[in-house]
TrEMBL record:
One of its GO terms (molecular function) is D-ribulokinase activity. The lineage of its organism: Eukaryota, Metazoa, Chordata, Craniata, Vertebrata. Residues 11-267 form the Carbohydrate kinase FGGY N-terminal domain. Keywords: Kinase, Transferase. This is FGGY carbohydrate kinase domain-containing protein. The keyword Nucleus does not apply. GO terms for cellular component: cytoplasm. The gene is Fggy. Pfam families: FGGY_C, FGGY_N.
Amino acid sequence: MHSKKQDPVKYYVGIDVGSASVRAALVDEFGTVVAHADQPIQIWEPQPDHYEQSSADIWAACCSVTKKVVCGVDASRIRGVGFDATCSLVVVDKEFQPLAVNCEGQNHRNVIMWMDHRAVSQVERINATQHRVLSYVGGVMSVEMQPPKLLWIKENLQESCWEKAGYFFDLPDFLSWKATGVTARSLCTVVCKWTYTSDGGWDDSFWKMIGLEDLVKDKYEKIGNHVLSPGEPVGKGLMPEAAKDLGLPEGIAVAASLIDAHAGGLGVIGADVKGHNLPCENQPITSRVAMICGTSSCHMGVSETPIFVPGVWGPYFSAMVPGLWLNEGGQSATGKLIDHVVRGHVAFPELQSKAAASAHSIYTYLNSHLDLIKKSLPVGFLTVDLHVWPDFHGNRSPLTDLTLKGMVVGLTLSRGLDELALIYLATIQAIALGTRHILETMQAAGHHITTLFLCGGLSKNPLFVQMHADITGKPVVLSKEVESVLVGAAILGACASGDFASIQEAMARMGRIGRVVQPNHEHRR
Protein backbone atom coordinates (compact mmCIF):
# COMPACT_ATOMS: atom_id res chain seq x y z
CA MET A 1 0.00 0.00 0.00
CA HIS A 2 1.15 3.55 -0.73
CA SER A 3 1.51 5.74 2.31
CA LYS A 4 1.21 8.98 0.33
CA LYS A 5 -1.50 9.86 -2.13
CA GLN A 6 -0.32 9.46 -5.73
CA ASP A 7 -0.73 12.31 -8.21
CA PRO A 8 -3.36 11.55 -10.86
CA VAL A 9 -1.87 10.39 -14.16
CA LYS A 10 -1.50 13.07 -16.84
CA TYR A 11 -2.66 12.45 -20.41
CA TYR A 12 -1.77 13.86 -23.82
CA VAL A 13 -3.55 13.51 -27.16
CA GLY A 14 -1.61 12.60 -30.30
CA ILE A 15 -3.34 13.07 -33.65
CA ASP A 16 -1.75 11.54 -36.75
CA VAL A 17 -2.92 12.20 -40.31
CA GLY A 18 -1.55 9.45 -42.55
CA SER A 19 -2.08 8.98 -46.28
CA ALA A 20 -5.35 7.05 -46.04
CA SER A 21 -6.59 7.53 -42.47
CA VAL A 22 -6.56 9.78 -39.42
CA ARG A 23 -5.71 8.26 -36.06
CA ALA A 24 -5.78 9.60 -32.53
CA ALA A 25 -4.46 8.22 -29.26
CA LEU A 26 -4.76 9.14 -25.62
CA VAL A 27 -1.26 8.57 -24.21
CA ASP A 28 -0.25 8.77 -20.55
CA GLU A 29 2.93 10.38 -19.19
CA PHE A 30 4.71 6.98 -19.28
CA GLY A 31 4.11 6.52 -23.01
CA THR A 32 1.27 3.99 -22.76
CA VAL A 33 -1.46 4.26 -25.39
CA VAL A 34 -4.63 4.18 -23.27
CA ALA A 35 -7.16 4.62 -26.09
CA HIS A 36 -6.86 4.61 -29.86
CA ALA A 37 -9.23 5.29 -32.80
CA ASP A 38 -8.94 5.69 -36.55
CA GLN A 39 -11.05 6.78 -39.49
CA PRO A 40 -10.40 6.59 -43.24
CA ILE A 41 -10.04 9.77 -45.31
CA GLN A 42 -10.73 10.22 -48.98
CA ILE A 43 -8.11 10.29 -51.75
CA TRP A 44 -8.91 11.43 -55.29
CA GLU A 45 -6.76 10.40 -58.24
CA PRO A 46 -8.18 12.46 -61.13
CA GLN A 47 -5.33 11.39 -63.44
CA PRO A 48 -2.12 9.34 -63.14
CA ASP A 49 0.35 10.74 -60.57
CA HIS A 50 -2.21 13.34 -59.33
CA TYR A 51 -3.33 12.63 -55.75
CA GLU A 52 -5.66 15.03 -53.92
CA GLN A 53 -7.43 15.26 -50.57
CA SER A 54 -9.80 17.61 -48.75
CA SER A 55 -8.69 19.60 -45.70
CA ALA A 56 -12.32 19.73 -44.48
CA ASP A 57 -12.60 15.93 -44.70
CA ILE A 58 -9.27 15.57 -42.84
CA TRP A 59 -10.25 17.98 -40.03
CA ALA A 60 -13.66 16.29 -39.63
CA ALA A 61 -11.87 12.95 -39.21
CA CYS A 62 -9.46 14.51 -36.65
CA CYS A 63 -12.46 15.67 -34.61
CA SER A 64 -14.27 12.35 -34.84
CA VAL A 65 -11.31 10.19 -33.69
CA THR A 66 -10.27 12.59 -30.93
CA LYS A 67 -13.77 12.62 -29.43
CA LYS A 68 -13.66 8.82 -29.33
CA VAL A 69 -10.34 8.55 -27.48
CA VAL A 70 -11.14 11.15 -24.80
CA CYS A 71 -14.66 9.91 -24.16
CA GLY A 72 -15.20 9.34 -20.43
CA VAL A 73 -11.80 10.76 -19.39
CA ASP A 74 -11.52 13.50 -16.76
CA ALA A 75 -10.82 16.51 -18.99
CA SER A 76 -8.71 18.24 -16.33
CA ARG A 77 -6.09 15.49 -16.70
CA ILE A 78 -5.60 16.08 -20.46
CA ARG A 79 -2.68 18.48 -20.59
CA GLY A 80 -1.76 18.94 -24.25
CA VAL A 81 -2.31 17.95 -27.87
CA GLY A 82 0.19 17.33 -30.66
CA PHE A 83 -0.42 16.87 -34.40
CA ASP A 84 1.60 15.15 -37.07
CA ALA A 85 0.67 14.65 -40.71
CA THR A 86 1.94 13.77 -44.14
CA CYS A 87 3.81 16.61 -45.83
CA SER A 88 0.93 17.38 -48.21
CA LEU A 89 0.24 20.90 -49.50
CA VAL A 90 -2.96 22.66 -48.34
CA VAL A 91 -4.22 25.71 -50.26
CA VAL A 92 -6.74 28.22 -48.85
CA ASP A 93 -7.84 31.70 -49.91
CA LYS A 94 -7.44 34.94 -47.93
CA GLU A 95 -10.49 34.01 -45.80
CA PHE A 96 -9.03 30.53 -45.15
CA GLN A 97 -11.60 28.87 -47.43
CA PRO A 98 -10.42 25.88 -49.53
CA LEU A 99 -9.21 26.50 -53.10
CA ALA A 100 -9.18 23.86 -55.85
CA VAL A 101 -5.76 22.41 -56.75
CA ASN A 102 -7.26 20.85 -59.90
CA CYS A 103 -8.46 21.91 -63.32
CA GLU A 104 -12.04 20.75 -62.50
CA GLY A 105 -12.48 23.63 -60.01
CA GLN A 106 -13.47 21.27 -57.17
CA ASN A 107 -12.68 23.57 -54.22
CA HIS A 108 -13.11 20.91 -51.55
CA ARG A 109 -10.16 19.07 -53.17
CA ASN A 110 -7.63 21.64 -51.92
CA VAL A 111 -4.75 19.36 -50.87
CA ILE A 112 -1.97 18.11 -53.17
CA MET A 113 -0.80 14.93 -51.48
CA TRP A 114 2.85 14.28 -50.61
CA MET A 115 3.00 11.37 -53.10
CA ASP A 116 1.65 13.45 -56.00
CA HIS A 117 4.19 13.56 -58.86
CA ARG A 118 2.50 16.12 -61.14
CA ALA A 119 5.36 18.64 -60.86
CA VAL A 120 8.08 16.63 -62.65
CA SER A 121 9.00 19.30 -65.22
CA GLN A 122 8.97 21.98 -62.49
CA VAL A 123 11.36 20.05 -60.22
CA GLU A 124 13.71 19.39 -63.15
CA ARG A 125 13.96 23.14 -63.79
CA ILE A 126 14.46 23.85 -60.07
CA ASN A 127 17.28 21.27 -59.91
CA ALA A 128 18.89 22.72 -63.04
CA THR A 129 19.46 26.01 -61.11
CA GLN A 130 21.91 24.19 -58.77
CA HIS A 131 21.00 26.84 -56.18
CA ARG A 132 22.85 26.58 -52.85
CA VAL A 133 19.66 25.66 -50.89
CA LEU A 134 19.64 22.32 -52.78
CA SER A 135 22.72 21.20 -50.83
CA TYR A 136 20.34 20.74 -47.85
CA VAL A 137 18.20 18.21 -49.74
CA GLY A 138 20.98 15.86 -50.80
CA GLY A 139 21.82 18.02 -53.83
CA VAL A 140 18.59 17.20 -55.69
CA MET A 141 15.10 18.38 -54.76
CA SER A 142 12.32 15.77 -54.77
CA VAL A 143 9.09 16.23 -56.73
CA GLU A 144 7.38 15.48 -53.40
CA MET A 145 8.60 18.76 -51.85
CA GLN A 146 6.56 21.97 -51.93
CA PRO A 147 8.44 24.43 -54.25
CA PRO A 148 7.79 22.36 -57.42
CA LYS A 149 4.12 21.96 -56.44
CA LEU A 150 3.78 25.73 -55.88
CA LEU A 151 5.37 26.36 -59.27
CA TRP A 152 2.98 23.86 -60.89
CA ILE A 153 0.00 25.73 -59.38
CA LYS A 154 1.32 29.08 -60.65
CA GLU A 155 1.89 27.69 -64.16
CA ASN A 156 -1.31 25.65 -64.46
CA LEU A 157 -3.91 27.32 -62.19
CA GLN A 158 -2.78 30.97 -62.29
CA GLU A 159 -6.23 32.60 -62.13
CA SER A 160 -8.31 30.00 -60.34
CA CYS A 161 -5.84 29.22 -57.54
CA TRP A 162 -2.49 31.04 -57.52
CA GLU A 163 -3.86 34.60 -57.60
CA LYS A 164 -6.66 33.86 -55.11
CA ALA A 165 -4.48 31.97 -52.62
CA GLY A 166 -4.05 33.55 -49.20
CA TYR A 167 -2.01 30.79 -47.53
CA PHE A 168 -0.10 27.68 -48.53
CA PHE A 169 0.25 25.34 -45.55
CA ASP A 170 2.07 22.10 -45.01
CA LEU A 171 -0.65 19.80 -43.64
CA PRO A 172 0.87 19.56 -40.10
CA ASP A 173 0.84 23.39 -39.90
CA PHE A 174 -2.70 23.60 -41.26
CA LEU A 175 -3.81 21.41 -38.32
CA SER A 176 -2.11 23.57 -35.67
CA TRP A 177 -3.68 26.67 -37.33
CA LYS A 178 -7.11 24.99 -37.24
CA ALA A 179 -6.65 24.27 -33.52
CA THR A 180 -5.27 27.67 -32.44
CA GLY A 181 -6.05 30.24 -35.16
CA VAL A 182 -2.30 31.00 -35.32
CA THR A 183 -0.56 30.69 -38.71
CA ALA A 184 2.88 29.87 -37.21
CA ARG A 185 4.78 27.13 -39.02
CA SER A 186 6.85 24.30 -37.59
CA LEU A 187 10.60 24.36 -38.18
CA CYS A 188 10.23 20.69 -39.17
CA THR A 189 7.97 21.35 -42.17
CA VAL A 190 9.55 24.54 -43.53
CA VAL A 191 13.12 23.25 -43.20
CA CYS A 192 12.44 19.76 -44.60
CA LYS A 193 10.00 20.54 -47.40
CA TRP A 194 10.21 24.28 -48.22
CA THR A 195 13.99 25.19 -48.21
CA TYR A 196 13.87 27.34 -45.05
CA THR A 197 17.21 27.22 -43.22
CA SER A 198 17.38 27.33 -39.45
CA ASP A 199 20.20 29.85 -39.50
CA GLY A 200 19.25 32.08 -42.45
CA GLY A 201 15.48 31.65 -42.89
CA TRP A 202 14.09 32.05 -46.41
CA ASP A 203 16.50 32.70 -49.29
CA ASP A 204 14.98 35.42 -51.53
CA SER A 205 17.33 34.55 -54.41
CA PHE A 206 16.02 30.97 -54.60
CA TRP A 207 12.35 31.95 -54.93
CA LYS A 208 13.20 34.64 -57.49
CA MET A 209 15.40 32.26 -59.48
CA ILE A 210 12.65 29.62 -59.82
CA GLY A 211 9.95 32.14 -60.78
CA LEU A 212 8.07 32.41 -57.47
CA GLU A 213 9.18 35.95 -56.62
CA ASP A 214 5.54 36.77 -55.68
CA LEU A 215 6.08 34.91 -52.38
CA VAL A 216 8.96 37.22 -51.39
CA LYS A 217 6.90 40.43 -51.87
CA ASP A 218 4.68 40.10 -48.81
CA LYS A 219 7.54 38.96 -46.53
CA TYR A 220 6.55 35.32 -47.02
CA GLU A 221 3.14 35.83 -45.39
CA LYS A 222 1.64 33.13 -47.63
CA ILE A 223 4.16 30.41 -46.75
CA GLY A 224 5.04 31.46 -43.20
CA ASN A 225 7.15 34.12 -41.51
CA HIS A 226 6.65 32.98 -37.90
CA VAL A 227 8.44 29.68 -37.23
CA LEU A 228 8.40 27.58 -34.05
CA SER A 229 10.42 24.54 -32.95
CA PRO A 230 8.48 21.25 -32.80
CA GLY A 231 6.88 20.88 -29.36
CA GLU A 232 6.78 24.63 -28.64
CA PRO A 233 3.33 25.86 -27.56
CA VAL A 234 1.36 27.61 -30.35
CA GLY A 235 -0.55 30.79 -29.48
CA LYS A 236 -2.84 30.59 -26.45
CA GLY A 237 -3.65 26.93 -26.92
CA LEU A 238 -6.87 25.37 -28.16
CA MET A 239 -9.44 27.95 -29.26
CA PRO A 240 -13.10 27.56 -28.25
CA GLU A 241 -14.45 26.44 -31.63
CA ALA A 242 -11.70 23.82 -32.14
CA ALA A 243 -12.05 22.65 -28.52
CA LYS A 244 -15.75 22.01 -29.13
CA ASP A 245 -15.03 20.20 -32.43
CA LEU A 246 -12.37 17.97 -30.86
CA GLY A 247 -14.13 17.37 -27.53
CA LEU A 248 -11.14 18.77 -25.61
CA PRO A 249 -10.86 21.50 -22.95
CA GLU A 250 -10.49 25.05 -24.27
CA GLY A 251 -7.02 26.58 -23.80
CA ILE A 252 -5.01 23.34 -23.40
CA ALA A 253 -1.54 23.46 -24.92
CA VAL A 254 -1.22 22.80 -28.66
CA ALA A 255 2.29 21.98 -29.89
CA ALA A 256 4.07 23.07 -33.04
CA SER A 257 3.68 19.96 -35.15
CA LEU A 258 5.82 17.43 -37.01
CA ILE A 259 5.71 15.58 -40.33
CA ASP A 260 4.36 12.06 -39.64
CA ALA A 261 7.64 10.22 -40.22
CA HIS A 262 9.46 12.62 -37.90
CA ALA A 263 6.84 11.99 -35.20
CA GLY A 264 7.54 8.26 -35.56
CA GLY A 265 11.25 8.98 -35.20
CA LEU A 266 10.58 11.01 -32.07
CA GLY A 267 8.46 8.18 -30.64
CA VAL A 268 11.23 5.56 -30.93
CA ILE A 269 14.72 6.98 -31.33
CA GLY A 270 15.17 8.29 -27.78
CA ALA A 271 14.01 5.17 -25.91
CA ASP A 272 16.01 3.94 -22.93
CA VAL A 273 17.81 0.74 -24.08
CA LYS A 274 19.48 -0.31 -20.80
CA GLY A 275 19.67 -4.05 -20.25
CA HIS A 276 18.99 -5.11 -23.85
CA ASN A 277 22.64 -5.78 -24.74
CA LEU A 278 22.51 -3.44 -27.75
CA PRO A 279 25.54 -1.83 -29.42
CA CYS A 280 23.91 1.62 -28.99
CA GLU A 281 23.72 1.29 -25.17
CA ASN A 282 25.83 4.01 -23.48
CA GLN A 283 26.36 5.52 -26.93
CA PRO A 284 24.96 8.86 -28.12
CA ILE A 285 21.59 8.86 -29.90
CA THR A 286 23.59 9.57 -33.10
CA SER A 287 24.38 5.82 -33.37
CA ARG A 288 20.70 5.05 -34.02
CA VAL A 289 18.52 5.26 -37.12
CA ALA A 290 14.74 5.40 -36.77
CA MET A 291 12.93 3.73 -39.65
CA ILE A 292 9.27 4.59 -40.11
CA CYS A 293 7.73 2.07 -42.48
CA GLY A 294 4.18 2.45 -43.75
CA THR A 295 2.96 3.29 -47.27
CA SER A 296 6.49 4.59 -47.83
CA SER A 297 9.55 4.39 -45.58
CA CYS A 298 11.76 7.05 -44.01
CA HIS A 299 15.20 6.55 -42.46
CA MET A 300 16.01 9.18 -39.82
CA GLY A 301 19.55 9.64 -38.51
CA VAL A 302 20.79 12.48 -36.33
CA SER A 303 24.25 14.00 -35.87
CA GLU A 304 25.86 16.64 -33.68
CA THR A 305 27.43 18.43 -36.66
CA PRO A 306 25.96 18.78 -40.15
CA ILE A 307 26.68 15.81 -42.46
CA PHE A 308 25.94 16.25 -46.17
CA VAL A 309 24.94 12.88 -47.65
CA PRO A 310 24.55 12.63 -51.44
CA GLY A 311 21.00 11.62 -52.32
CA VAL A 312 19.78 11.86 -48.71
CA TRP A 313 17.74 14.85 -47.47
CA GLY A 314 19.23 17.22 -44.92
CA PRO A 315 21.16 18.08 -42.86
CA TYR A 316 18.23 19.86 -41.20
CA PHE A 317 18.97 21.55 -37.87
CA SER A 318 16.47 20.80 -35.05
CA ALA A 319 13.91 19.37 -37.50
CA MET A 320 13.22 16.32 -35.31
CA VAL A 321 15.36 16.37 -32.14
CA PRO A 322 16.15 19.92 -30.94
CA GLY A 323 19.85 20.75 -31.16
CA LEU A 324 20.74 17.88 -33.52
CA TRP A 325 21.05 17.76 -37.31
CA LEU A 326 18.72 15.37 -39.15
CA ASN A 327 19.42 13.37 -42.30
CA GLU A 328 16.44 11.67 -43.88
CA GLY A 329 16.66 8.85 -46.38
CA GLY A 330 13.52 7.39 -47.87
CA GLN A 331 11.80 4.91 -50.15
CA SER A 332 8.73 6.29 -51.93
CA ALA A 333 6.80 3.02 -52.08
CA THR A 334 7.24 0.18 -49.56
CA GLY A 335 3.95 -0.88 -47.94
CA LYS A 336 2.24 0.36 -51.10
CA LEU A 337 4.62 -1.73 -53.23
CA ILE A 338 4.11 -4.95 -51.22
CA ASP A 339 0.34 -4.44 -51.50
CA HIS A 340 0.60 -3.72 -55.22
CA VAL A 341 2.65 -6.86 -55.92
CA VAL A 342 0.49 -9.16 -53.78
CA ARG A 343 -2.94 -7.85 -54.84
CA GLY A 344 -2.00 -7.74 -58.51
CA HIS A 345 -0.96 -11.41 -58.62
CA VAL A 346 -3.24 -13.91 -60.36
CA ALA A 347 -3.26 -16.11 -57.20
CA PHE A 348 -4.49 -13.28 -54.95
CA PRO A 349 -8.16 -14.47 -54.82
CA GLU A 350 -6.96 -17.90 -53.68
CA LEU A 351 -4.76 -16.25 -51.02
CA GLN A 352 -7.69 -14.11 -49.87
CA SER A 353 -10.05 -17.03 -49.41
CA LYS A 354 -7.44 -19.26 -47.69
CA ALA A 355 -6.40 -16.45 -45.32
CA ALA A 356 -10.07 -15.74 -44.49
CA ALA A 357 -10.73 -19.44 -43.85
CA SER A 358 -7.79 -19.61 -41.42
CA ALA A 359 -8.87 -16.31 -39.77
CA HIS A 360 -5.47 -14.73 -40.49
CA SER A 361 -4.43 -11.58 -42.35
CA ILE A 362 -3.11 -12.20 -45.87
CA TYR A 363 0.42 -11.35 -44.72
CA THR A 364 0.36 -13.69 -41.71
CA TYR A 365 -0.88 -16.40 -44.06
CA LEU A 366 1.89 -15.69 -46.61
CA ASN A 367 4.55 -15.78 -43.89
CA SER A 368 3.36 -19.20 -42.68
CA HIS A 369 3.09 -20.44 -46.28
CA LEU A 370 6.75 -19.51 -46.84
CA ASP A 371 7.66 -21.50 -43.70
CA LEU A 372 5.85 -24.50 -45.21
CA ILE A 373 7.69 -24.41 -48.54
CA LYS A 374 11.18 -23.50 -47.34
CA LYS A 375 12.11 -27.12 -46.42
CA SER A 376 15.42 -27.19 -44.51
CA LEU A 377 16.93 -23.96 -45.85
CA PRO A 378 16.39 -20.53 -44.23
CA VAL A 379 13.37 -18.77 -45.75
CA GLY A 380 15.51 -16.02 -47.32
CA PHE A 381 17.19 -18.54 -49.64
CA LEU A 382 13.90 -19.36 -51.43
CA THR A 383 14.42 -16.39 -53.75
CA VAL A 384 17.88 -17.36 -55.00
CA ASP A 385 16.58 -17.07 -58.60
CA LEU A 386 13.99 -14.32 -58.15
CA HIS A 387 14.92 -10.66 -57.83
CA VAL A 388 12.92 -7.43 -57.55
CA TRP A 389 14.15 -3.91 -58.26
CA PRO A 390 11.71 -1.99 -56.02
CA ASP A 391 11.64 1.51 -57.60
CA PHE A 392 8.12 1.23 -59.02
CA HIS A 393 7.54 4.86 -57.95
CA GLY A 394 11.05 6.13 -58.69
CA ASN A 395 14.00 6.18 -56.25
CA ARG A 396 14.00 8.78 -53.47
CA SER A 397 17.30 7.79 -51.77
CA PRO A 398 20.12 7.54 -52.44
CA LEU A 399 19.80 7.60 -56.26
CA THR A 400 17.26 10.50 -56.33
CA ASP A 401 15.95 9.38 -59.70
CA LEU A 402 12.23 9.80 -60.29
CA THR A 403 12.44 8.18 -63.70
CA LEU A 404 13.51 4.76 -62.39
CA LYS A 405 10.96 2.00 -62.75
CA GLY A 406 10.44 -1.36 -61.04
CA MET A 407 11.59 -4.69 -62.36
CA VAL A 408 11.22 -8.40 -61.60
CA VAL A 409 13.83 -10.90 -62.84
CA GLY A 410 13.37 -14.67 -62.72
CA LEU A 411 9.67 -15.09 -63.55
CA THR A 412 8.37 -18.47 -64.74
CA LEU A 413 5.05 -19.67 -66.16
CA SER A 414 3.96 -20.87 -62.68
CA ARG A 415 1.05 -18.88 -61.28
CA GLY A 416 0.07 -20.49 -57.98
CA LEU A 417 0.20 -19.49 -54.33
CA ASP A 418 3.85 -20.62 -54.02
CA GLU A 419 4.88 -18.11 -56.69
CA LEU A 420 2.86 -15.34 -55.04
CA ALA A 421 4.60 -16.10 -51.72
CA LEU A 422 8.02 -15.99 -53.40
CA ILE A 423 7.47 -12.67 -55.18
CA TYR A 424 6.16 -11.25 -51.88
CA LEU A 425 9.39 -12.40 -50.16
CA ALA A 426 11.58 -11.06 -52.97
CA THR A 427 9.83 -7.68 -52.72
CA ILE A 428 10.47 -7.47 -48.96
CA GLN A 429 14.12 -8.41 -49.54
CA ALA A 430 14.44 -5.74 -52.25
CA ILE A 431 13.08 -3.10 -49.85
CA ALA A 432 15.57 -4.25 -47.15
CA LEU A 433 18.44 -4.09 -49.67
CA GLY A 434 17.28 -0.54 -50.49
CA THR A 435 17.53 0.29 -46.76
CA ARG A 436 21.05 -1.16 -46.70
CA HIS A 437 21.97 1.03 -49.70
CA ILE A 438 20.74 4.13 -47.81
CA LEU A 439 22.57 3.18 -44.56
CA GLU A 440 25.83 2.49 -46.43
CA THR A 441 25.59 5.89 -48.15
CA MET A 442 24.98 7.64 -44.80
CA GLN A 443 27.90 5.79 -43.19
CA ALA A 444 30.25 6.62 -46.08
CA ALA A 445 29.43 10.31 -45.51
CA GLY A 446 30.27 10.19 -41.78
CA HIS A 447 27.37 8.65 -39.83
CA HIS A 448 28.17 5.82 -37.36
CA ILE A 449 25.07 3.63 -37.22
CA THR A 450 24.84 0.53 -35.03
CA THR A 451 21.13 -0.06 -34.39
CA LEU A 452 17.81 0.29 -36.26
CA PHE A 453 14.63 1.39 -34.46
CA LEU A 454 11.53 0.38 -36.46
CA CYS A 455 7.95 1.61 -36.22
CA GLY A 456 4.91 1.97 -38.47
CA GLY A 457 2.59 -0.59 -40.02
CA LEU A 458 5.27 -2.77 -41.64
CA SER A 459 7.09 -3.19 -38.31
CA LYS A 460 4.17 -5.47 -37.32
CA ASN A 461 5.26 -7.94 -40.02
CA PRO A 462 7.90 -10.30 -38.51
CA LEU A 463 9.26 -11.30 -41.95
CA PHE A 464 9.82 -7.64 -42.91
CA VAL A 465 11.63 -7.03 -39.60
CA GLN A 466 13.83 -10.15 -39.75
CA MET A 467 14.85 -9.47 -43.38
CA HIS A 468 15.90 -5.93 -42.40
CA ALA A 469 18.01 -7.29 -39.54
CA ASP A 470 19.60 -10.04 -41.70
CA ILE A 471 20.27 -7.87 -44.77
CA THR A 472 21.66 -4.83 -42.89
CA GLY A 473 23.45 -6.97 -40.29
CA LYS A 474 22.14 -4.69 -37.52
CA PRO A 475 19.84 -5.40 -34.56
CA VAL A 476 16.30 -4.04 -34.93
CA VAL A 477 14.52 -2.53 -31.93
CA LEU A 478 10.70 -2.54 -31.95
CA SER A 479 8.90 -0.15 -29.64
CA LYS A 480 6.53 -1.39 -26.95
CA GLU A 481 3.76 0.69 -28.47
CA VAL A 482 3.20 -0.25 -32.10
CA GLU A 483 1.71 3.21 -32.65
CA SER A 484 5.01 5.06 -32.23
CA VAL A 485 3.90 7.87 -34.54
CA LEU A 486 0.99 8.62 -32.19
CA VAL A 487 3.33 8.46 -29.18
CA GLY A 488 5.59 10.95 -31.00
CA ALA A 489 2.65 13.32 -31.56
CA ALA A 490 1.68 12.97 -27.87
CA ILE A 491 5.31 13.72 -26.86
CA LEU A 492 4.89 17.06 -28.67
CA GLY A 493 1.74 17.80 -26.63
CA ALA A 494 3.54 16.79 -23.43
CA CYS A 495 6.38 19.18 -24.26
CA ALA A 496 4.02 22.06 -25.07
CA SER A 497 2.21 21.54 -21.75
CA GLY A 498 5.40 22.26 -19.81
CA ASP A 499 5.25 18.90 -17.98
CA PHE A 500 8.70 17.95 -19.33
CA ALA A 501 11.76 20.18 -19.40
CA SER A 502 12.71 19.15 -22.95
CA ILE A 503 11.76 16.92 -25.87
CA GLN A 504 14.72 14.67 -24.97
CA GLU A 505 13.35 14.15 -21.46
CA ALA A 506 9.87 13.36 -22.81
CA MET A 507 11.35 10.95 -25.42
CA ALA A 508 13.30 9.00 -22.80
CA ARG A 509 10.22 8.71 -20.52
CA MET A 510 7.53 8.07 -23.14
CA GLY A 511 9.38 6.05 -25.83
CA ARG A 512 9.59 2.42 -24.64
CA ILE A 513 11.26 -0.70 -26.05
CA GLY A 514 9.19 -3.80 -26.74
CA ARG A 515 11.32 -6.38 -28.52
CA VAL A 516 14.78 -6.70 -30.08
CA VAL A 517 15.30 -8.75 -33.28
CA GLN A 518 18.92 -9.80 -33.83
CA PRO A 519 20.36 -10.41 -37.29
CA ASN A 520 21.22 -13.97 -38.26
CA HIS A 521 24.74 -13.38 -39.56
CA GLU A 522 24.83 -16.77 -41.32
CA HIS A 523 21.99 -15.58 -43.57
CA ARG A 524 23.62 -12.32 -44.51
CA ARG A 525 25.16 -13.69 -47.73
